[in-house]
Amino acid sequence: MPFRSCTYLCATALLLCMLAAGEFNGTTYQLSDNQVDVTRAVHGSALNLSLPSKAANLALHDHKGNVVGFNSSVQFWMGEYLYALTFEGNVSGNLSYALPHHGQEFLLLTKENGPVRIILPPGYTTGDRILGIARPTPDEVMEDGSISLTWHNLTADQLIDVSYYRIGAPQSLKRILIILAAAAAALTLEYFLSIRRLRAVREEAEKRA
């Protein structure tokens, strides 16, 4: 069943423009609340994809933004969806598609050598060792409305793990820790005061005896 995001078309158009301008010649993963929009550079007349989930909104454009037709077939094998794409001629452009995604952690096992860029949802960041970091450390981190993480020289079968969180989360965590520390201090003080009162009562009882 196809799934769509209200920002899918705008995000894809923006990425296609960036790639067409020669700014990035790899695979870009733009994260949102319920899916990841993928744009990858292609050069040739065919492409094989191995994906963890079924792809939606498959589209191919050349570097001028023109739609390019293609034939595709898919098989499910060993837990992955294997796509075989054949283009209408030799194409230098970009293939885009969408995959389901949930949560605030993105795991990616690279299938080939090449650069990778992951764009976090607006209002999210990464880098706090308690709340979440990116492994391995990105070669480049940029902020232009959203945080983008880039790895330039990845190899096949390399695992990327990005945990991210809302930008205001560290401040909220600090406030919670302060409240918990104050509560713990109040309970500790009340405990020692109770001990002193019990001792005073015991000493008074011993004197009367």
Write a structural description.
By secondary structure, the protein is of the alpha+beta class. The chain has 2 domains: 8-167, Immunoglobulin-like (Sandwich); 168-209. It contains 2 helices and 13 strands; from the N terminus they run αβββββββββββββα. It has helices at 8-20, 169-208; strands spanning 27-31, 35-51, 56-62, 70-77, 80-100, 105-109, 114-119, 124-125, 134-135, 140-143, 147-154, 159-163, 165-166. The strands form 3 sheets. Strands 1, 2, 3, 4, 5, 7, 10 and 11 form an 8-stranded mixed beta sheet that branches. Strand 10 (140-143) and strand 11 form a beta hairpin. The protein is elongated and about 105 Å long. The model is unreliable at 1-22 (pLDDT under 50).
SS summary, helix count: 2
CATH-defined fold name of the largest domain = Immunoglobulin-like
Which regions have little confidence, pLDDT < 50, spanning 5+ residues?
A: 1-22
Total count of domains: 2
Provide mean pLDDT, rounded.
84
